[in-house]
Design a protein that fits this description.
- It is a single chain.
- The chain is of the alpha/beta class.
- It has helices at residues 9-21, 26-32, 36-39, 58-70, 73-81, 96-99, 115-134, 155-166, 185-192, 212-229, 234-237, 245-251, 277-283, 285-304, 311-325, 343-355, 387-392, 414-431, 435-444, 449-455, 477-498, 509-522, 533-546; strands spanning 41-44, 47-50, 108-109, 112-113, 147-151, 176-180, 200-205, 238-241, 258-259, 330-335, 373-376, 399-404, 467-472.
- It is 48% helix and 10% strand.
- The strands form three sheets. A six-stranded mixed sheet has the order 1-2-13-12-10-11, sandwiched between helices. A five-stranded parallel sheet has the order 6-5-7-8-9, with helices on both faces. It has a two-stranded antiparallel sheet with strand order 3-4.
- The protein is globular and about 80 Å long.
- The chain starts with 8 loop residues before the first helix and ends with a helix.
């Protein structure tokens, strides 16, 4: 039995400490301590994490580290890396870290070292991806396969989408990647309308090969291909990322082109596995392995570093500080790099699917908030959408800024302006602008007294709003691996603190199960299931519109 986090000594200390810190101004703390930035900044290789613009002092951090220790975080980290079954609701280990175990240190599950199988799949990915890129694995008509279509959903889609876009500068010049996930037929239609069947490889990602969204899309793509090239083309144009050989074979895919992954890797942690095949084809296996190298570097930092110098631990604890004491139930991630535009969407699943739980690992309802709502987008675009709320809204929203020092596309002053914006935003959120400062500014600009008096509140900024700034040298495979692994471990830290299982996702299933009961009714066959009056009326109305 674990101690409930809200019953710990550190939690009670933090609760009392919060009453002081909620009134403390960050601008004052910076003014009083010239070393604040150095004190609250960490660096791992070329990644720099500045967390100084947070409503914290040394006592805050002491209490948070004590909280982590009372929650036995160190033991839980060791348990994960040792292959213990920390996914308690499904009785499984959690070993995405094994997928990028570049030292090849043995990791055992039920007495078996999993590394040989992982290395076998990586070798198979290398052989196949190189064959596609070189054109030695050809389509039915002998043409090179230059259109790569990944068909998956959830972690089988979000990871590959995010990583391929982030690493677009590393794509082979003749490779184009497409992704189909939504069951909406439009998703299929739009992709199929852009590609030539003779030059297309479909990657079907489904562990069970029964996922309704994925298999429905896959069958539509199969029919499209067969109509164009014949039944025999399926084996030349489809591969599977799955463990269900019988269903893969039934679909018409050669089992030799089936890539395995394992129950000890959850979907949202799977881009490091065979699920990343589309990434490997797009950027090359060497670059895919550099991404693994970067993740491994962060894994080692997370495992070996003291809490006081541990990037994921500190970021995770800061999230707990705001979520549970400041009641900040929203959290933003804003990368200032167009190639990272899908990182917030990826992190939405990672964070909210992992920690959106109301039952503890001890089978008790939790009495405190767990995962916040995560949102974000690419800067500077989002400065002109939700940053109004970030600066002047009634709720405080902590934010992570991500910026590379060097752009892949150094065009004029573009990147300098981009960097200036991200640094300005973090400073503005911290500093704010008082009513008096707003009034003085307008007066200096020659505004009338009446205008000044009317507008001074509108033009003031509360400030004292927290942010972290994460600086990378450049967006490359290695730095991307580090960045994503950092967020994975941050989420894990928060799950341990909140005493929940971060690795199941039962909440995904209920609506999908109910959809299966509604489907026959939409097809004019009664299901025999009694719905509420709203659902019944909506079914009837939709059927009426179709007549």
């Amino acid at each position: 039995m674990n101690i409930a986090v809200n019953k710990t000594r550190a939690w009670k200390k933090l609760d009392g400490h919060y009453k002081t810190m909620k009134k403390t101004q960050m601008r004052d703390m910076f003014a009083e301590d010239d070393s604040r930035a150095d004190k609250y900044t960490l660096q791992l290789e070329n990644m720099r994490v500045d967390y100084s613009k947070n409503r914290i002092n040394d006592r805050t951090m002491k209490f948070l580290f004590n909280l982590a220790r009372e929650c036995r975080l160190e033991d839980k980290i060791k348990a994960m890396f040792a292959g213990e079954k920390i996914n308690v609701t499904e009785n499984r280990p959690v070993l995405h870290i094994a997928l990028r175990n570049r030292a090849n240190t043995p990791i055992y599950v039920d007495g078996e070292n999993v590394m040989p199988k992982i290395n076998e799949v990586l070798a198979k990915m290398r052989k196949f991806s190189e064959a596609v890129r070189l054109g030695t694995f050809k389509g039915q008509t002998g043409k090179k396969l230059t259109n790569i279509v990944n068909i998956g959903i959830g972690g089988s889609d979000l990871g590959p989408v995010m990583a391929t876009e982030a690493l677009r500068k590393y794509w082979a010049k003749d490779i184009n990647c497409y992704f189909i996930s939504n069951i909406d037929g439009t998703a299929c239609a739009e992709v199929l309308g852009k590609i030539d069947p003779e030059e297309t490889l479909f990657i079907v990602a489904s562990k069970t090969f029964t996922t309704i969204e994925t298999l429905t899309n896959a069958r539509t793509c199969r029919k499209w291909l067969v109509d164009a090239l014949g039944e025999h083309a399926v084996a030349k144009h489809f591969v599977a990322l799955s463990t269900n050989e019988a269903e893969v074979r039934k679909f018409g895919i050669n089992p030799e082109n089936m890539f395995e992954f394992w129950d000890f890797v959850g979907g949202r942690y799977s881009m490091w596995s065979a699920i990343g095949l589309s990434i490997a084809i797009a950027v090359g296996m060497d670059n895919f392995e550099k991404m693994l190298d970067g993740a491994y570097a962060m894994d080692q930092h997370f495992y070996h570093s003291e809490f006081e110098h541990n990037i994921p631990v500190i970021l995770g604890l800061l999230g707990v500080w705001y979520n549970n004491f400041f009641d900040c139930h929203r959290y933003a991630v804003v990368p200032y790099d167009q190639y990272l535009q899908y990182v917030p969407a990826y992190l939405q699943q990672l964070d909210m699917e992992s920690n959106g739980k109301f039952v503890s690992v001890d089978n008790e309802y939790v009495k405190y908030a767990t995962a916040p709502v995560l949102f974000g987008g690419a800067g500077t675009n989002v400065q002109h959408s939700f940053f109004q709320l970030i600066h002047q809204g009634t709720e405080m929203v902590p934010i992570d800024f991500i910026i590379p020092a060097i752009s892949h596309n150094e065009i004029g002053e573009h990147h300098e302006i981009l960097v200036a914006n991200v640094l300005a935003q973090s400073e503005a959120l911290m500093r704010g602008k008082t009513v008096r400062e707003a009034a003085a500014e307008m007066t200096a600009a020659g505004k009338s007294k009446e205008t000044v008096n009317f507008l001074k509140k509108f033009k003031s900024f509360e400030g004292n709003r927290p942010s972290n700034t994460i600086v990378l040298k450049k967006i490359d495979p290695y730095s991307l691996g580090m960045l994503i692994a950092m967020y994975e471990h941050k989420v894990f830290v928060q799950g341990v603190i909140w005493n929940i299982d971060s690795f199941d996702q039962f909440g995904v299933e209920l609506g999908k199960q109910m959809a299966l009961s509604i489907l026959p009714e939409l097809e004019n066959n009664a299901s025999g299931i009694r719905h509420d009056s709203s659902t019944t009326a909506l079914i009837s109305y939709i059927k009426k519109l179709r007549k």
